[in-house]
Amino acid sequence: MASSPYPAGTVRALLATDLVTEATRTALLARLGAPEYEPQYFDAATYELLRMVAARLFPQPDREAPIELAPSIDQRLFTGGSDGWRYDVLPPDRETYRLGLGGIRESARVMFGQYFELLTGAQQDAVLRAVQNETAPGPIWDTLSANRFFEELLAELTENYYAHPLAQEEIGYVGLADVPGWTKITLNEKEDREPEEGEMVNW
Q1: Could you give the angle at the alpha carbon of 166 between the alpha carbons of 183 and 74, nearest 5°?
Q2: Cα–Cα dist 65/34, whole Å
Q3: In this structure, how many other beta carbons lie within 10 angstroms of the beta carbon of residue 126?
Q4: Counts for the chain of helices (H) and strands (E), in that order
Q5: pTM value?
Q6: What phi and psi values does residue 141 have, to the nearest 5 degrees?
Q7: Which distant-in-sequence residues (6+ apart) come within 8 Å of 136 by Cβ?
Q8: Is residue 151 within 8 Å of residue 145, measured between CB atoms?
Q9: What does the buried/exposed string (b/e) look like for 192-202 if buried means 16 or more CB atoms within 10 Å of the residue's CB?
Q10: Are 57 and 157 in contact (CB under 8 A)?
Q11: What is the pLDDT along the chain (203 residues), one digit of tens a residue?
């Protein structure tokens, strides 16, 4: 993603204040300090495929350590959780992801004769664009809506990305300061806790 106009450290500084409830602080600090993840639901190869798909849809060239988006999906499917919605043309989430990732793998082989993981970035983008446009080859897409799967995947990756404190910092979001007390709620008003671009707030 693009570099942020907001100062690095904004979120960590805010988390150290009494403007954030303990439950929110605990959850967000856990995301900041998440250890290396071992897949629980997907096999290693499929999990790596998901990671690489996520990296193409959410490139993070400015981050030394990119925000990992695949763990939340793997963990949700492992526990049988739901993200709260799905298209009625899609099967249950576990089956959707199993088929959809398999379809991406198939399409890569048909289009370029190689595993998705071994393609160039431009080739990977071409495969994903074909899935989005419902022009991707492969028999799996005869039974699974490619476009709907792509939308489901992109929506969940987006949710996972912006649930991370560093992504929230990137856009100047301070709604994580969830202790009651927000009073400036009309247009063009800002609370003292909200940063200006390029300026660190002293809370």
Answers
A1: 115
A2: 12
A3: 17
A4: 8, 0
A5: 0.86
A6: -70, -5
A7: 103, 104, 107, 111, 127, 130, 146
A8: no
A9: ebbbeeeeebe
A10: yes
A11: 556 666 778 888 889 999 999 999 999 999 999 999 999 999 999 999 999 999 999 999 988 889 999 999 999 999 999 878 888 999 999 999 999 999 999 999 999 999 999 999 999 999 999 999 999 999 999 999 999 999 999 999 999 999 999 999 888 888 888 888 877 778 878 777 776 665 555 55
What residues does each domain of the chain span? 34-170
Tokens 């495929």 — which residue?
49
Contact 150, 132 (CB under 8 A): yes
Half-sphere exposure of 175 (CA within 13 A, CB side): 8
Note whether 74 and 143 are within 8 A (CB): no
Q: Give the single-character DSSP code of 139.
A: G
Q: Is the torsion defined by CA of 20, 21, 22, 27 positive or negative?
A: negative
CA dist 163 and 24 (Å) reads: 11
**Nearest in space to 155 (alpha carbons), one of 93, 64, 89:** 93
> Which stretches of the chain are assigned E, i.e. beta strand?
none
